[in-house]
């Protein structure tokens, strides 16, 4: 039987850091494939091993204790910061050593939104996108890719590109800020695919996305545009060395998952900068209660992500219209060798 010291949060944290520094992946294809099989078969439970190889059993059906408030099963991915940042009050890591786990949530509900309404909004926003400086710069940057770099990309997988069906009745065309951002990010995906196809003799570049917020009418709308929506974790499993990954401000650690699973042919995502140690932020609520804000973003940069990007040529993305924020192109080196 393990001693209290061997079972302490601090001891688990040290083991986690040791294994991580030795190169043990946080996320593995085998675990994701097993989880995907269980979800596809509609099984009731799944066993997921944590970073220290302890087994945890999760319900793949919504449990009774939360059935009144949720309607879907979700996968939670915990990056290295989440596994090694002690909570200041509780003196423990919030999720222990669990790199992947099952949680429960609710789908976005869009009343009176149809595929036709989404397509109409898309066509209106498409005109603004085509005329934007950002779209022109995107085209110019893609033209700088070498023939071998272009040939290396046969598909695009987008992560967390936003809810295309989130139309806002307060706007005459339904295109509020949230819808504009989501629609434009998907337009960028289609634009990239079209340009790559033209540069590579018409060879088809397939487009996929993974984003639970597009469940239902959102996914149906994307299908009419030529984008195939994949349930989590199929998007991650689709990534191979012929893939361009596009990810913009996701709410999961996409970059850390990709760094462990597969180096793609290229990435367009939030600029990778050297990780900085951050501290919890204390916030006092209106009622006087004290809460703590986790110090890292939902898609933080780890040392492993930095090492991965060293294998790529880097080109800052010129977002003149501020559609996407600070992004960078990462294109695998030595494609001309």
From TrEMBL:
InterPro entries per UniProt: SRR1-like
Highest taxon, organism lineage: Eukaryota
A Pfam family recorded for this sequence: SRR1
Domain SRR1-like: 141-278
Alphabetical list of PANTHER family matching this protein: SRR1 DOMAIN-CONTAINING PROTEIN, SRR1-LIKE DOMAIN-CONTAINING PROTEIN
UniProt name for this protein: SRR1-like domain-containing protein
Lineage: Eukaryota, Fungi, Dikarya, Ascomycota, Pezizomycotina
């Amino acid at each position: 039987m393990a001693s209290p010291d061997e079972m302490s949060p601090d001891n688990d944290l040290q083991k986690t850091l040791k294994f991580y520094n030795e190169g043990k992946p946080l996320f593995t294809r085998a675990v994701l494939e097993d989880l995907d099989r269980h979800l596809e078969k509609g099984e009731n439970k799944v066993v997921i091993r944590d970073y220290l190889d302890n087994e945890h059993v999760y319900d793949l059906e919504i449990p009774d204790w939360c059935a009144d408030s949720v309607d879907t099963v979700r996968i939670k991915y915990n990056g290295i910061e989440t596994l090694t940042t002690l909570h200041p009050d509780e003196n423990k890591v919030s999720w222990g050593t669990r790199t992947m786990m099952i949680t429960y949530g609710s789908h976005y509900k869009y009343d009176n939104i149809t595929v036709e309404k989404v397509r109409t909004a898309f066509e209106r926003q498409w005109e603004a996108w085509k005329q934007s400086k950002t779209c022109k710069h995107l085209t110019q940057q893609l033209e700088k890719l070498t023939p071998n770099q272009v040939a290396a990309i046969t598909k695009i997988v987008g992560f967390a590109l936003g809810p295309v069906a989130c139309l806002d009745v307060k706007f005459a065309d339904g295109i509020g800020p949230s819808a504009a951002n989501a629609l434009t990010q998907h337009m960028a995906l289609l634009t990239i695919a079209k340009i790559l196809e033209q540069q590579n003799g018409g060879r088809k570049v397939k487009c996929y996305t993974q984003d639970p917020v597009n469940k239902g009418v959102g996914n149906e709308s994307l299908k009419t545009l030529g984008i195939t929506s994949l349930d989590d974790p199929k998007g991650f499993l689709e990534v191979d060395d012929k893939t361009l990954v596009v990810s913009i401000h996701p709410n999961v650690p996409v970059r850390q998952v990709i760094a462990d699973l597969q180096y793609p042919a290229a990435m367009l995502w939030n600029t990778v900068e050297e990780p900085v140690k951050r501290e919890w932020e204390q916030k006092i609520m209106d009622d006087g209660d004290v809460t703590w804000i986790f110090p890292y973003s939902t898609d933080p940069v780890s040392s492993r992500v930095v090492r991965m990007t060293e294998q790529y040529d880097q080109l800052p993305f010129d977002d003149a219209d501020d559609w996407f924020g600070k992004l960078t192109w990462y294109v695998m080196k030595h494609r001309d060798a």
